[in-house]
Every structure is written in structure tokens, then in C-alpha cells.
Write a structure and sequence with these properties.
Nicotinate phosphoribosyltransferase; seven-stranded antiparallel β-sheet; EC 6.3.4.21; 16 helices; single chain; alpha/beta; phosphoprotein; pyridine nucleotide biosynthesis
Length: 446
């Protein structure tokens, strides 16, 4: 289902038929960008390009899909014939996944025949928007909890199976240690983590018996959930069981706490573990956490070694959407520009150049026309030409390493998850000049 070209809006198909009827089949360039930062955000992080390229590489209408479209009676024979042979034959330029970006910066450009390029809009936005949203959220959690183990616990609250799975991928790109979602390991090799639920403890009459039976059944990477009843009492039971388990070759790696005043509870549990000779047992917490609550726990110096982040991550609960758009910038060699109030665009095919300070931190971006050759790192790179991949697809490990470098390069003003900072994004002279030229042309034609 996720690969179907019918995962689109009807108006895309309506426009395709009108383009074909009027001979508007020349080359078009569309760019995908975010208009504005969501409140509370200082930056965004790209993700989802790999899924977009996979979709484009296999783009086609199946016989069943064509039969459905014909049966609707909405589209003429010329349109249906066009769709029958349609493949992605265009070019893609994009920022690599894991790149930090800012409003108005194109993160992906499609150059292809106009009807084809138009049809791609809805699904490309869908694929890039969601993973970029979640990667950004995960990056903020990373900044709130440096050096801690972070795990995606959010599949069950995600808005559908694809969202839950892609959230595991996006959060791993941003630096999470792994996910609880098993399919993510099978598809991409993302490490998976799992402990136990309260139901397992409740199914036993005795809490110690529950811990012992679980440990013997699942001895590897053993984590025991200790807040079903009283976490401090359960911590004492863990201390009492550790020597028995050690004689059987089983090590308790950590305990998990999912509720309560996490500062007070973790301090109490840490004291019990340490006094009982279990200083090596780590404390992992979960339960309604986000970057701000994690930052508060860090400020309190709560003795926490790792966090499971669920609903807030996979739904980006505080800011669940990006104002992301896909706009026509050039058609048949002529630059195009939208001038709607508060929704204007800059015309032409563009590139983003990034400057860095002497210490390697990012210091400012310039958006200008592709080919302007400005100083700094050009962020958009060729991904597909004439419908074919033109470079090695980076591994997930390579994407993750890039994201780590990007987060390390953030200046202090962008690192505080509680106070949004500002960053300089300038418009280059060549782009300003083209914008003025297009405005004159528009004014003359009205």
C-alpha cells in the first residue's frame, strides 16, 4: 500500500490531465522546504530521503490501479495511457539525511516533466515531513540527555504502523541507542531493547518469584521492572536475588522505573542498590517523558542512566507537524515565484551554502541560485539523474554519524531545548536579483 502512486491527493491527478490536455509537459523544478520553525524549535533535522528514493526508483502504476482509475470515469484515454508507461525519469538533489536545516532552505529538489513532478508532491511531503519531524524531536532529546542511553518506546502510540516504524528509524538517525520495535531490527539492523511489563509481575503471586522466573527465562541484557507496587521494596528484592542469579551466571544489568517522582524514587533506589553491593546495576526510567522533563531530571542530578521515550517522541506531541511545502520554482527554463501573503517563495533552482566558525560550529547559511558558487559547504547534492541513483546510498550508520556531527556542530544558542535560539539564514545577491526580475515580469503581465 505504501508504494502506491495513488497515495496522493485527487487534485494532483486532476492537474496532470489538464497539463496533458494543454501540452504542458516541459521540464519543471519543484523544491521542498519548511516555511517556518515550529514554536519552541531552534533547528530541524532531515530524514526520510532513503524511503523517498526507494519509492521513486520503483514508481509505476499497476494494472489494478490503472483499471481502478479507468473505472472511475474521471480520466480520459490520453491520461490513462500516460500513466501506464509512467516511471520516474527525473533528477533529485537533496540534503543528506541527518543534516540540520532551517526555514526556506530547500531540502529536496525534483526536476522532471511537469505532470510527473506534480504528481510526486503529496507522498514526498508525507515521507520527508514525518521522519524529519521525529528526527528533530529525537535530536532535542539527545541534547537534553548527553551521554545517556535513549530508547524509542513509542510504537504503540504512533499514528499507524508506518509511522511507528519510521519513528524508530528517524530517532536512531538522531542518536537514540535503539528501539523497542522489533521490525526495525529486521529491516535496518537497529538495536532493539525490551524489558518486561507490569502484567508479568502481576501474573505472579510473589514479586521476587516474578523477577527470578523472568531472569531465568530471559537472562541476556536483563532489566527488571520494579515499580509495579513499591519500587524501593522491589529494589531490595533485586539486591537479595543478585547473588542467587550470579551463581547461575545471570547478571542484572538494570532496573526500570515507569512512574512516580523520578527524582526521589531513583535516588532512593540508587542508595538501596549501592548499599547492597549492586552499584553496577543501572537505572532506566520511562513514562510520559519528553526533552523538557528529561532536561529537568538532568538538572536535578537524578541518578538515571537511560530513558525510554514513547508517546512524546513518535507523535512529536508538543509540535506534531512541520509547515512543509513543495513549490514550483522553474518551468521550461523560466523562473517561477509564488507571491501569496505570508506564503511567498523565492524563484529558481537553489542551493544552500553553510559557513562554519573556527571551532567547527555552524555560523550561518546563505540561500542563493544553484551554481552561484558561494563560500562554504553546499548542502544539496545529486541523488538521482534521469531516474537512476548516482551515488552510493549511505548506510544507516553513516547517516547516524552525520547527524552526530551536525548536533556536535550546533552553537550554544541552538542547544538549549527550553529557550529557542536564532540562526542567520541570508538570501544571496543572485537570488534577490532574480526575485526582483520575476516580480517585474509578473507585474508587467497583470
Amino acid at each position: 500500500m505504501g508504494d502506491s502512486p495513488l497515495l496522493t491527493d485527487l487534485y494532483q491527478l486532476n492537474m496532470m490531465q489538464a497539463y496533458l490536455a494543454n501540452g504542458l509537459t516541459g521540464t519543471a523544478s519543484f523544491e521542498l522546504f519548511v516555511r517556518r520553525l515550529p514554536p519552541g524549535r531552534s533547528f530541524l533535522m532531515t530524514a526520510g530521503l532513503a524511503q523517498a528514493v526507494e519509492w521513486l526508483a520503483d514508481f509505476h502504476f499497476s494494472p489494478d490501479e490503472l483499471a481502478y482509475l479507468e473505472k472511475t470515469g474521471r480520466f480520459d484515454a490520453k491520461m490513462l495511457d500516460y500513466l501506464a508507461g509512467l516511471r520516474f525519469t527525473g533528477d533529485i538533489d537533496a540534503m543528506p539525511e541527518g543534516t540540520v536545516f532551517f526555514p526556506h532552505e530547500p531540502i529536496l529538489r525534483v526536476t522532471a516533466p511537469l505532470p510527473l513532478a506534480q504528481l510526486l508532491e503529496s507522498r514526498l511531503i508525507n515521507l520527508i515531513q514525518f521522519q524529519s519531524l521525529i528526527a528533530t524531536k529525537a535530536a532535542r532529546v539527545m541534547l537534553a540527555a548527553p551521554g545517556k542511553v535513549l530508547v524509542d518506546f513509542g510504537f504503540r502510540r504512533a499514528h499507524g504502523a508506518e509511522a511507528g516504524l519510521m519513528a524508530a528509524r528517524a530517532s536512531y538517525i538522531a542518536g537514540f541507542a535503539g528501539t523497542a520495535t522489533v521490525l526495525a531490527e529486521m529491516l535496518w539492523g537497529i538495536p532493539i531493547y525490551g524489558t518486561m511489563a507490569h502484567s508479568y509481575v502481576q501474573a505472579h503471586e510473589d514479586e521476587s518469584e516474578a523477577f527470578l522466573s523472568f531472569a531465568r527465562a530471559r537472562p541476556d541484557n536483563l532489566t527488571l521492572l520494579i515499580d509495579t507496587y513499591d519500587p524501593e521494596a522491589a529494589a531490595r528484592k533485586v539486591v537479595a536475588l543478585v547473588p542467587t542469579l550470579a551463581r547461575e551466571g545471570i547478571t542484572v544489568q538494570s532496573v526500570r522505573i515507569d512512574s512516580g517522582d523520578l527524582v526521589a524514587v531513583t535516588r532512593g533506589v540508587r542508595t538501596i542498590l549501592d548499599n547492597g553491593g549492586c552499584a553496577a546495576v543501572k537505572i532506566f526510567v520511562s513514562g510520559g517523558l519528553d526533552e523538557e522533563s528529561i532536561a529537568a531530571l538532568a538538572r536535578s542530578r537524578a541518578p538515571i542512566d537511560g530513558y525510554g521515550v514513547g508517546t512524546a517522541l513518535t507523535t512529536s506531541q508538543d509540535q506534531p507537524v512541520l509547515d512543509i511545502v513543495y513549490k514550483l520554482q522553474e518551468y521550461d527554463g523560466v523562473a517561477k515565484r509564488k507571491r501569496s501573503t505570508a506564503k511567498h517563495t523565492y524563484p529558481g533552482r537553489k542551493q544552500v551554502w553553510r559557513r562554519r566558525a573556527a571551532d567547527g560550529t555552524i555560523a550561518g547559511d546563505v540561500i542563493s541560485l544553484d551554481g552561484a558558487g558561494l563560500p562554504g559547504e553546499a548542502l544539496l547534492a545529486p541523488v538521482m539523474r534521469d531516474g537512476e541513483r548516482v551515488r552510493h546510498d549511505p548506510s544507516l550508520a553513516e547517516i547516524r554519524a552525520r547527524a552526530a556531527r551536525e548536533l556536535a556542530a550546533l552553537p550554544p544558542t541552538l542547544r538549549d531545548v527550553g529557550v529557542p535560539g536564532s540562526y542567520s539564514v541570508a538570501i544571496g545577491e543572485a537570488l534577490n536579483a532574480l526575485t526582483a526580475e520575476v516580480d517585474r515580469r509578473i507585474a508587467a503581465s497583470r
